[in-house]
User: Fold this.
Amino acid sequence: MIITTGEHHAPAAVKRAAALAAKSGCRYVPRNRASMARLAELHPGEDILVILEGGARLHRPGEQPMNFHPSMSFVRAKRLFKGEQDTMLEAAGVKPGDTIIDCTAGLGSDSIVFSLGAGPKGRVIAMEDSLPLWALLSEGLTYYESGLQPFDEALRRIEPRLGHHLGQLELMPDQSADIVYFDPMFRDPVLESASISPLRAFANDSRLEEAAIAEACRVARRAVILKEKIGSGEFERLGFRVLGRSRSKITYGVITP
Assistant:
């Protein structure tokens, strides 16, 4: 993957692009007024991350460009600010000050809601093993501005980590988090929305491993949560107890270590 800036690059964008390239091990390529088509010609087959003022945009040849956007998390956040409940937070039993690990972060929609639920004294770690998605997520969490300060503060508190969740969980101490969460649903084409569908080109579509659930149970103090499609067989395969009934095609399962 190469990292560059928009056509009208500012010094701050260049600095961000160079810093992200150094952190990720990718190459920073000055834009030099080249079109995206020209950059693709000069760097055939490579993903291109464009640093923008309010986040970043990800390009892959033959795929729809993807900007960082909080998607439904912003709608869910506004409901929380009105005092309404969020089904995911209720299912996970999130409390202010909790440490939460989102093992399948994608573009962070659930991580953002977890950050709101855990509050300023909480901690949310968002794991993502796709380098392009991690880079897009990192820039978005740091620079996206919604115009709603409490929401933006929740974004800034999230810690995006690059790597597969199994390997990262194996490195964590016993009972070092309150909740460990898995949501592989954005990889399911049956349930994809228009905003989620572009993730498929970049995401790891492997199903969850039993070893990952075992590690999650070791790390979690209170609960391991899985969001899945009803009738998929994943709850039974991985040992989760389904939490109630849902009118939706998806629901939540729990393991209490």
Remarks:
- DSSP finds ten helices and twelve strands in the chain.
- The longest strand covers residues 220-229.
